[in-house]
Structure formats: C-alpha cells, structure tokens
Amino acid sequence: MTIYVVMSGEQSDYGICGLFTVKGIAEKYVESHNNCRDIIAWIETYEADVIDVGGTWFFVNLYPDGRMYCGESDSDTIGEKTGVAERNGFCQVYTLASSPEKAKRIALDKFTAFAANKVGV
Length: 121
What we know:
Elements: E1 2-8, E2 15-20, H1 23-36, E3 41-47, E4 56-62, E5 68-72, E6 84-86, E7 91-97, H2 100-119
Antiparallel strand pairs: 1-2, 1-3, 4-5, 4-7, 6-7
C-alpha cells in the first residue's frame, strides 16, 4: 500500500501535516495548504506493509441524519467489499474489523475520506 505523507517546515518547525492513501487527496491538501500559508508543503511517498489481522466482514450503512447500522456481511458478497458505495438515500461501507464498534469507526473514516474526495478537498 502506498502512503502519501504531506510534510512542511524546516528544522524545528519540520513536521507531518497529514497521511493519505489517495494521491489526489494529498495533492489537493498540499495545494490548499500552500495557498493559505507562507510555509510550503510537499508530498513524500512511502510503501507500507499491509498485515492481515483477520476479523469479520461487516457492512455499515451511514444515513444523512447521522444514524449508522452495522451488520455482518454475507460470505457471497466478498467481491463487493471495497470502499464506499452510494445507495438510495444512504452510503454503505464494507470493512474487515474485530467488532461492530470498530467497524463503525473504520466506516466513518472511510466515508469521511470519500466525502472529502467527492467535493474536491
């Protein structure tokens, strides 16, 4: 998995501004950062190992009013389990997690990245 690390500053002000798995989002972040600040940001690229920690496949439905519903996914839908899907009136996220609570947290993170990318952030 490729990780895009947005960096800025120098010497004692040097630091990480953000970590991204989508290059386009990292580029838009850098562009926004550089338009608003005197300190220039840039992207460093790293390869990260992905470790299979096991768990259960869950689906999480996220509704516009803030409600979330989480359930175990059927084994026959394994091919669908990637990213965020827009459904009729809600979004659905498939994720591998150790518990429904963790699945909800992961789904919310995935949905936030999806929504930011959709609006061009």
